[in-house]
Amino acid sequence: MPTDTQFATDWLEERYRFDVAARNPKAEAACLQYFAQHPDVSIIDMGAGTGANFIYLSEKFPQSQQWALVELNPNLLKRARERLKIWAAAKGYTVREEGQNLDFRRSEQHIHVQLLQGSFLELPQLLQPDQFHLVTASAVFDLLSEQMLSNLVQVFHQNRLALLATLNYESMAYLPGDAEDDHWIELYEAHMQREQDFGRALGPKCSASLENSYAQLPTEQILRAPSRWQIEPADTFMHGHMLEFLERSLLEMTHLGHSGKGLNAWLQRKKAALQAQQLRLSVTHSDLFIAPVYEG
Ligand SMILES: C[S@@+](CC[C@H](N)C(=O)[O-])C[C@H]1O[C@@H](n2cnc3c(N)ncnc32)[C@H](O)[C@@H]1O
Predict the structure, then answer these.
(1) 44 lines ligand 1 (CB under 6 A)
(2) 9-171+199-232+282-292, which class in CATH?
(3) Is residue 7 pLDDT above 90, yes or no?
(4) Which end of the chain is more exposed for a tag (fewer CB within 10 A), N or C?
(5) Domain assignments of the chain as residue spans, ordered by start
(6) Cα-to-centroid distance, 50 and ligand 1 (Å)
(7) How high is the pLDDT of residue 2?
(8) Which residue's CA lies nearest to atom 1 of ligand 1?
(9) DSSP string spanning 235-266?
(10) pTM over 0.90
(11) Per-residue CA distances from 24 to 172, 231, 285 (Å)
(12) Protein residue with its CA nearest to atom 10 in ligand 1
């Protein structure tokens, strides 16, 4: 499997504050509440990137934690390791390096982090899933095909793992709108779901597909709630990234035979609105917390 997953470090770090602002407090509270009585929590973070999900969530759990950060791209994992060390030192933890792993201690709290380079699609070859309580995945599951996701759900179910899947893409809207926005955004979403080596990514269908897979399984709780990026006119760097993604994806669709008539003019209107500090974009995602049935 190629390990260059095309996610740039600066993009992942730029989106962090938008993710933090967007995360749904109800889904997060349900997860923290579910584990409130556990003396410690063991967590697998899938598609860890540069460690954003760990950095955000580890502080929310008051108890000790064992984390396994699973990431395909070795460069991102390397950056995650550096970022976590800086984060832990700034938060007053003592930091110990144990080979690839990291160990943080502060008063009674102990956080152990394993950094695992590999594909979460082969999870049982990387770690023992039944040694964990929770899987987290942020901005990851919408990249997968329906089959990949439903296979993972089986692994989570068999190992009685709870799941907190955040920032799954659903839709986007420019404000104020333009008569052609729907057309180009639909084509952008079609690009997310285009045929690839592994099949078609779920894109906006991800959360519904996740709920469907769980509908046939016993669960104690399924909570799905919106998480929304609000990209304001002053957020020029983030707007620039979004326009670049749109342009690249839409051009690829024109090469696949879709008409590009009006595309340049539409992009120019967006770029002009950005220059004039009038561009707003709302990107809706959803967060899901799913708890397995507790069977003693
Ligand atoms: C949009 S990024 C999100 C990263 C991080 N969770 C965050 O919130 O910033 C998706 C991540 O999933 C990783 N990824 C994609 N497929 C993977 C796989 N099969 N196994 C492990 N990581 C994968 C990518 O390399 C990338 O780092």
Answers:
(1) no
(2) alpha beta
(3) no
(4) C
(5) 9-171+199-232+282-292
(6) 9
(7) 64
(8) 139
(9) -HHHHHHHHHHHHHHHHHHHHTT---TTHHHH
(10) yes
(11) 17, 17, 10
(12) 140
